[in-house]
Amino acid sequence: MINAVLFFLVVSMMAPPPPLPPADPADAVRMGPIPGAEIPAATARRVARCYPPDPGAAAGMILVAFAVDAGGQVVPGTVATLGAAPASDAARARFNAARRAILDCARDGYPVAGSASAGGADSRVILRFDAAGVSLP
After folding, report:
1. Tens digit of pLDDT for each residue in 39-96?
2. What is the pTM of this model?
3. For the domain that residue 106 is a member of, what is the CATH number?
């Protein structure tokens, strides 16, 4: 009996894991450009997957802005809060978590408007981060 269990464990560890489905069907790869009006929502959904909501955290929210280049990558040095710099420890922790989420989820690039990708202009994104998660301001 023990040999059968060990054999099962060894065989199951050798098999490759099944592919993961997209986290949100709305984020699945599309053919063609994403309409401009949907880009901020698609970016917010992608960042939300990397931002851990913390319902037990202190109340408050921060607005974070960043620039995305024509290839959908975050422009270095552009992730910043809107308004005053976070003063409290909780606000700084929230900003640091937001910054990590923005940069970590940017590996595959964010969607950009057709005009931005064609003309090489940077797009500015503003997102709201609070204890519940990520949303548009």
Report:
1. 788 889 999 999 987 766 766 788 999 999 888 899 999 999 988 888 888 888 889 9
2. 0.67
3. 3.30.1150
Q: Write down how long the chain is.
A: 137
Structural domains in the chain (count): 1
> For the chain, how many helices (H) and strands (E)?
4, 4
- Distance, CA of 107 to CA of 27 (rounded, Å): 15
In a domain, 100, yes or no: yes
Residue with tokens 């609070």: 130
Structure token digits, residue 87 = 């003063």
Q: Determine the Cα–Cα distance for residues 117 and 13; give it in Å rounded to an integer.
A: 43
The answer to whether residue 22 sits within a structural domain is no
Burial 97-110 (b: 16+ CB within 10 A, else e): bbbebbeebbeeeb
In the numeric block, which tokens belong to residue 48?
Answer: 């939300």
